[in-house]
Description:
The protein is of the alpha/beta class. Helices cover about 35% and strands about 20% of the residues. The model is unreliable at about 325-330 and about 335-348 (pLDDT under 50).
Amino acid sequence: MPLVAHRPLESLQRIQKEGQEVLDIRRAHSQDIRELHIGLLNMMPDGALQATERQFLRLIGNSNRIAQFYVHIFTIEGVPRSPEMQAYIEENYEKFSDLAEQGLDALIVTGTNPVHQHLSDEPYVDEIRKIFRWADDNVTSVVCSCLASHAAFEIFYGIKRQPLAQKLFGVFEHRVLDKKHPLLSNINTRFDMPHSRRNDVSAAQMQAHGLKVLVAGKESGVALATSPDGFRQIYLQGHPEYDVQSLLKEYQRDAVLYQAGKLSYQPALPAHYFNEHAQALIDAYLRGDSDFPVEALTEEIDITWRDTAKGIFANWLGLIYELTHYDRRLQFMDGIDPNDPLAGKRHD
């Protein structure tokens, strides 16, 4: 079943206008259908905060028809905010303390822009550690995105991310390494995924601690891995949630700064993202012949990762649904008793 608008949120209204089904709370309560409550810890900076809401809401709402999805969005202190965005958060976001009391079935944790060389120096590290520890005891499964994966690696395994020689930025080809894992059921064995990061944790680092590497690429390294049990924590170094303009907007930000003389180097184009016509449009912009051609460039971008992203999230949510119903088909998860009620406190 679809997303439920259990509280006012502009992002829900926007994706509903795009054609995605969103139930109002009264209709949802009139239906005798299983609820799944998914937390979304959104740590993205101001410019990407609402876009990230929409990206994950679309993935959850488009994933399958097994339940009504209540998405509970919250954030933490330590990420710099403008007064306007802080007011938006206070009006629209929920409190972690309330969600911890009510319980969640699953949790998604986004990344954010790193400020320091070492994650342990980030101002939000104590808060994210507290939430990860709570989730490990109370939530069926946690999806960690990009920097959140690196934080989880360090918190739970002492694995330190390593700086890349240059930013990994673009859309890269990947291969499925474990075709039998339920997260990858009915997924193409070769697919694309966007990346945007300056740090990396290698397959060797992960495997040395018993983590399961499920998807990797020659250029990008590990894209998807899990905790040793196969499901409790899911780590993404890439961004399957990205929409068509995500990398474009990031490049635009740096290109505009470069043109204004506020960036000392010409930013690299995202790899495997723009075709020849798009690159010609960008060359014209860099010569000063035009304004930045957002709309024209958008028309030239091929989306080669969306169906895979939907499939992975559909599998994840389906497994959560089954596990919270104590389905014995999930005995593939080492160390997890399928009869153990791991779901949130909402369930009887």
